[in-house]
Amino acid sequence: MDEYIAKDNNNPINIQNEPNYCEDCGEAKEMLEGEEVCVRCINEEEELNEIKIECKDYVLYDRANNRLVKFEKSGDIVLYGIKEEAQDDCYGNEEVIQFEKLPKDKQEEIIKQIY
Fold first, then answer.
1. Same domain, yes or no, for 42 and 65?
2. For residue 26, what are the domain limits?
3. Orientation angle between helical segments 39-50 and 104-114, nearest 10 degrees
4. pLDDT tens per residue, range 14-71
């Protein structure tokens, strides 16, 4: 049985023909090997996996909330080249941690910011 919904002009459309959209990027999902996936997100993930970065910078990491300290205006993650500078800015739950010791999802967040 077909399912229908009404558009603004009250013309019914078959919702089974409407594409599903990715929750992360908003792109229409496509069928790939029998599974509906977001090709854009897959490509971005593959590109991130190919990036080999050697970063000795430090960040302020709030482990309890899984958050990195960011600049208020730009929203960019604050990167420190000198550990002592990071320690001077460290408050509350934050800890100074080197890029390579961060959880993978936080490393990817920094890579996305840089590239």
1. no
2. 4-50
3. 90
4. 445 566 787 777 777 777 777 787 777 766 666 655 555 567 899 999 999 999 999 9
